[in-house]
Amino acid sequence: MLGKLFKHEFRRIGKMASLLLAVFFGVTVFGAIYLVSPLFHSIIDAGNNSSMALTAVSGIIALLGLLSYMLMLVGLSFGFIIYLGFRFYRSMYSDEGYLTNTLPVKSSHLIIAKIAAGGIWMLIMTLALYVFVGFLVIVGYSQMRGIGLFDVITFFREALNTFVELVKEVADYDFSTSWILLICMTIISPFATLSILFGSLTLGQYSWKNKGLMGILAFIGVRIAMSIFSGILSLGITMFRTNAGNDPELMFMLANDKYLVNLLAQIIFACLLFFWSIHVVSDRLNME
Amino acid sequence: MNDLLVLSNVSKNYGYGKLAVNNVSITLPRGKIIGLLGPNGSGKTTMIKMINGLLQPTEGEIRFLGEKIGPESKARISYLPDRTYLSPSDTISSILDYFEDFYEDFSRERAVKMLEDLQIDPRAKMKTLSKGTKEKVQLILVMSREADLYVLDEPIAGVDPAARDYILRTILNNYHQNASILISTHLISDIEQVLDEVIFMRDGRLILYGSAPQIREQQGKSVDAYFREVFAC
Fold first, then answer.
1. Candidates A1, A7, A98; nearest CB to B54
2. Which residue in A86, A153, B6, B75 is deepest, having the highest Cβ count within 10 Å?
3. Number of domains in chain B
4. What pLDDT was estimated at residue B163?
C-alpha cells in the first residue's frame, strides 16, 4: 500500500512540479537568449568603452537582471513548498482528508508517502535549479569574455582546483568534508523540511479553532526553536574550537561545523515531528 | 460472527463543555438496514466519524468484527461522508483508479455501469459537476464496494426527489445480504420503508434502538410520525 500511496502522491504533486520546472526552464532560456542578444552586448560594450558612469550603469543593469532571475527562482521554490504544505493540509485535515484517513492503510504510510513524494520532487527541483543557474552563469561569462562555453567550464574548473590547492597549502584544509556535507544537506534537506512542515501543520490540529492558521504559527515556532537550538550548539562548538587553538584551518572548520549543526538540527526536529504526526493521525485524529 | 459493530460506553467531548456523544453502547448486527435518526446536533455525524476513525472517542471503545478501528476495519467499511471528499481537479476516471488501487472489494465494472445509467461521463472533472452529481458520484463509489458495513451520512439530503429514488434504489440493489447499512438522515419518510431497525439520538444520547416494524406496531404509527412526536419542538 505504501507504494500505491507514493505513486498517487508523486503523480499529483508532479503536475504542479512539472509546471514550475517548465517555468524555471522558460525563464532560463529567456535569460540565455538575453545574454547572447545584441542588447546585452551593447551594455557590455558601453561598460568597456565608455566613462565610469556608464560602466556603473551597465554593471547595475546586469546585476539587476541576475538578481531578479535569482529572486524568481527562490520565489518559485518557496511557492512550491507552500503548495506542498497546502496540499498536505487539504488532503489530510480538510474535506479530502475524509477519503485519505479512511483508506485501509497505516497512518505512518500516509505520512511517509507524502514526505517521500514531495521530498523527491523538491530534490529534483533543487538539482534543476543548480543546473539552470550554472548554465546561465556559464553563458553570461562566455558572452562577457567572448570565449566558448566549454572554455568557461574549463576556466571555472581550473579556478576551483587552484582555490582548493591554495587552501590546502596555506591552511592545510581538505575540502572533502565540506563536499560531503553539501551533498548530505542537498539530499536530506527537502525531506527534513517537509517532515517539519507537515508535523507543524499537524500540531495545529490540537487547536479548537483556526487549525490551519495555528499550523502555520506552529511552523514559525518550530523554525525559531530550531534556530535557537542550532545557535546554542554552534556557539558551544565555536568556543570549544577557539579554545583548542587558532589554526589557519579554523575558519573552514567553523563553516563546516555550522553546516553540520544545521543538518543535525534539521534531522532531530524532522524525526521528532515525523513521529508526532504519525501519533496524531493514528491515535489523536479529530477531523473538523 | 453476527455482531458487526460494537460501541461500548462511547463518549465524545469536543472540549467546550458539551458532550457530542454521551455514553452510547450499541451493537449492530449483520444483514440489516439501520436508520440513524435524530435532529441537528444530536451526535449522529460525530458517532459516524468515530466509527470511521476520523474522530477518537474521549471515552469508551469501538470494535468492528472484534477489532479496534484501523486499516483492517477501513478495508471493510464503506463510508459516505456528508461532504464532497474528492479533489475538484480529479477526473472521475482517475478516482476510479484510486478506489481500485486501495479497496480490494471495489468493483470498477459496477461503478462504470452506474455512471452510464446516470449518463455521467467518467472523463469529466469533479469541479465541472453539479453538487447533486458530485453526491451521486460519491454514492456510486461507496456502493461499488463489496463491504461488510456501509455508513452513509445524509446520502439524500442535497438531491432532488427523483435522484433520491435513484439513490435509494442504488443502495438497495448494491449491498449484499450479509452486509449492513447504517444510514443517517432527517428525511425519514423517504427511507422508512427500507429500514429494518432505527436508532433515535438526542443531545448525544441513544434514546431508542429497535426494529422499525415493531415500533410501527407498538406505537400504531409510522416511524416518521413517531419521530416527529418524540422530537417535537
1. A98
2. B75
3. 1
4. 74
Q: Which domain holds residue A26?
A: 1-162
pLDDT at position B23 is 92
Q: What is the pLDDT of chain B when averaged over all its residues?
A: 89
Domain of B57, in residue numbers: 3-230
Is A104 in contact with B103 (Cβ distance < 8 A)? yes
pLDDT at B197 over 80: yes
pLDDT band at B128 (very low <50, low <70, confident <90, very high): very high
Same domain, A4 and A43: yes
Work out the average pLDDT over A254-261. 80
SS (H, E, C) chain B: CCEEEEEEEEEEECCCCCEEEEEEEEEEECCCEEEEECCCCCCHHHHHHHHCCCECCCEEEEEECCEECCHHHHCCEEEECCCCCCCCCCEHHHHHHHHHHHCCCECHHHHHHHHHHCCCCCCCEHHHCCHHHHHHHHHHHHHCECCCEEEEECCCCCCCHHHHHHHHHHHHHHCCCCCEEEEEECCHHHHHHHCCEEEEEECCEEEEEEEHHHHHHHHCCCHHHHHHHHCCC
Averaged pLDDT for residues A154-178: 80
Which residues does chain B have within 8 Å of residue A103's beta carbon, measured at their own beta carbons?
74, 102
**Predicted-complex ipTM score:** 0.90
From A134, A162, A190, the end of a domain falls on A162
Same domain, A1 and A121: yes
**Chain A residues touching B53 at Cβ < 8 A:** 101-102, 285
- Which CATH number do you get for residue B218? 3.40.50.300
Q: Which of B58, B101, B137 would best serve as a mutation to test chain A binding (most A beta carbons within 10 A)? A: B101
